[in-house]
Amino acid sequence: MIKVSVLYPNGPGTKFDTEYYKNLHLPMIAESLGDALISMELNIGVAGRAPTEQAPFVAIVHLLFESLATFQASFGPYAEKFAADVPNYTNVEGQVQISEIVSL
Q: Where are the transmembrane segments (predicted)?
């Protein structure tokens, strides 16, 4: 199983419309990917290491897929559509990490 994480860096001038992302962008992704998407989780940054530090990421979304091949096959046809929607919710570029999930 793999996890695709998209991390949106926080910083001066960062704009991120959480309501748009949660209510429009992510449902569009879920509908487009269909059964290939096992689950999705949205994390909204609230603080950093110290209580007065801002979170290093304004938002992080995690998407679970059975395999890298499943992710690539399901996401590829919609990549341009998803990218075209980014300016509707943020002015920063998300960082993507694809990870293998290892049970301990």
A: none
CA angle 62, 68, 72 (to 5 degrees): 90
- The residue assigned the tokens 């499943």 is 70
pTM of the model: 0.93
- Report the 3 state secondary structure along 32-100: HHHHHCCEEEEEECCCCCCCCCCCCEEEEEEEEECCHHHHHHHHHHHHHHHHHHHHHCECCCCEEEEEE
pLDDT in tens, 47-104: 999 988 999 999 999 999 999 999 999 999 999 999 999 999 999 999 999 999 999 9
Contacts of residue 96, Cβ cutoff 8 Å, sequence gap at least 6: 4, 5, 6, 7
Classify domain 2-100 at the CATH class level.
alpha beta
| Alpha-carbon torsion, ordered 7, 36, 78, 84, to 10 deg | -30
